[in-house]
Amino acid sequence: MNIPDIQNAQDDNKEWGIINCHTHIATINYLNKSLFVWPFPISAVSLLGNPFLRKILLFLVGKIISPALAMMGYKSLEESWERLASLAKMSTLQDEQKIKKEALQKKAVEENTILQDEYQIKSGQGHVFDILRSYYPEGTKFVILSLDTEYMFSEKKRKKVDENNSFEKQLKDLVEIKNGTRYKGEQTAFPFIHADPRRPGIVEMVNRGIENSDYHGIKIYPPFGYLPNGDHPDAYKDKDKKFPEDLREIYRVAEEKGTPIVAHCTPTGILGDPYYNKYHGIFTDPDNYQILLDEFPKLNLCLAHFGGNTAWSKYLEEPWEPSEEEDKNNKKAWGMKITDMIEAQDEDGKLKYPNLYTDISYTSFDLHTLALLKVHLSSEKYKALSHKILFGSDFPVLQADITERAFSINLRGYLGETLFEQIASKNPRRFLRL
What we know:
Layout: H1 9-13, E1 19-23, H2 51-72, H3 75-111, H4 124-134, E2 141-145, H5 167-180, E3 182-183, E4 186-187, E5 189-194, H6 202-211, E6 217-220, H7 248-257, E7 261-264, H8 275-278, H9 286-295, E8 301-304, H10 309-317, H11 324-328, H12 334-343, E9 356-359, H13 367-378, E10 389-390, H14 404-415, H15 417-432
Parallel strand pairs: 1-2, 2-5, 5-6, 6-7, 7-8, 8-9, 9-10
Antiparallel strand pairs: 3-4
């Protein structure tokens, strides 16, 4: 089997650095105000701006809502609320950091000194990015995934977005962060633009932004209500059901240029309405991405989350590889589906999808899944897999379970330097074409 080049000649002489391939820094202002309503009379997102209400919300989520949802078997809803808890914790951390920096700034004025850049007070995404960077060694590079939640609900539930919190404003801030944060002359922030086929003009926006080097890659999030190829969920039974934009043109150009794409590929997460709930999570099933890859086989694509922490935990309790009957009924674990796609060969014994990757964001954050990851990376059975797994943390989502620094250090310590370098430096450089 033809395995792609693991490293270029320059890599042998280059001191490696960490590349986190899956992070978010969008603040709560950019979230759809229809999110997280149940069981409150108003959107819980609206409560995050108030420190007192935020504490109450964290208590309710941690002590009542999440345990109740877990007990009732509503794993998707439970993880959605845990994501809200992580955003609440991030908002609190932002407030604490701001207070500290204001105190330093006041002292600097009194002493007539100049503060270094890292102590300057920033706002919005710039502030969150500073918090993220503080958890990692200097020079660490980050893929920053933008988030377009404006169209994730049906028109009846959509809220009007003001210009200060628009998707366009979020992207503008990301470009400024990209251009303004460098280490030893090298870029450290790599924004990805979210492509939602319901946003008018998104094809032109994406292709122009990639061409101008404003964005390094593309993010897609089908759970908001569209299939990975960009089709309307009802298109299979009604050909007139279409979205304003056809993502196939984005994929065609991305395949031609090698532009990296990160796609959500786990049955849980923040879900759109009504389509995602109506179709019980088929949007992100790896089978849908296989259809996409059969049309664009050289697409530089990362199926994020490697099937998800829930699937990995389930594997440790049940057989990963299903019986023929289970396989026929599409019950194969998503992690196994992704592995099969990565390992698939064509008639010549070469990788069928040579640019297909996966990442471990919000998957390998506890010890039992870390052990499973190490086994996969060291397995003789899977020849390509160890060269296709990317390090990613899903910041700030992990904050509900473990701190960013603890996650990365636990992972590095458990895997050892050789394997960690493989997933946190060598593989990401190939995926990002650095």
